[in-house]
Amino acid sequence: MSTLSEVGDRDHWRCWLCDEPVDPEGSVNADRGPSIDAGSSPKGKKEPAAIERLAHRACNTGKGKVAPVVAWSAALFVVDPAPIVATVERMSRKGGREVVARCPSRADADEAAVWLLDRLSRFAPDLRVETQVDAGGGQFLLVLRAL
What we know:
It is elongated and about 50 Å long. By secondary structure, the chain is an alpha+beta fold. The protein has 2 domains: 4-62, no CATH class; 84-146, no CATH class. The chain has 4 helices and 5 strands, in the order H-E-E-H-H-E-H-E-E.
């Protein structure tokens, strides 16, 4: 088991669920305070989860009530974005490639591609992926491909 400082430094003091900054000096009893999400074992498995991730206390507590949702940045111009958690789970199991969003311009798609790779590097550090932007039908498709 890692210490809070080790996990926080590795995750750059950002919550893996909401992607907002976590105050390293914040009280562990405060809603926005730091906590370690030890994950949960996959259904039917008895071994512990391998990845500990940094989360706000409230985000960590709240994920027990509902399935976690990792939102796309509101600053991006994406249409029909795929759910990040489900995409990561599918690609971890099957690999392959998936269209994860449509964008109206190449610049929007390129910006979304950079953001998505950065977000996935923190959310699912063991998942090796690359992005590709394909033009078609007057729009640009953002494709995620497992390596």
